[in-house]
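thoughts on both lines:
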Amino acid sequence: MAMRIEMKTLSRLTQYVDLIKKLADADHYRRIEGKGNPEMFDDLKKNVDYSIGKKYAKVFTMYVDGSSRSLHSFVDMDNGDIVKGSWKAPIRDKSGKLAVRGNIWADDIGESNIDQYGPKYLR
């Protein structure tokens, strides 16, 4: 049975991935500033991509050469929740609830709750 994904959800997920790419690019240029020719560091730039599973989209970063993939976050495709996770699955907190850190349907697409490395920790 094929999973049906609404176009507006896919569009919002793409906006979320673009936001992460923007954060990763800003971090990349901040790190290499003043260290010589920026083109020397192009292979250290990160791409952001996603794969859609049964319930969640797995969002991950990787170097432009395709090496060293790292999980960024999971997005619940039913309600848009941004969830912390391990490479295999979303994680739960001590009470057993999913570690939800934001939502892609928020006005800021969840930007206030993430950085270039993943969802922020609760304080």
About this structure: Residues 7-32 form the longest helix (26 residues). The chain has one domain: 7-110. DSSP finds one helix and seven strands in the chain.
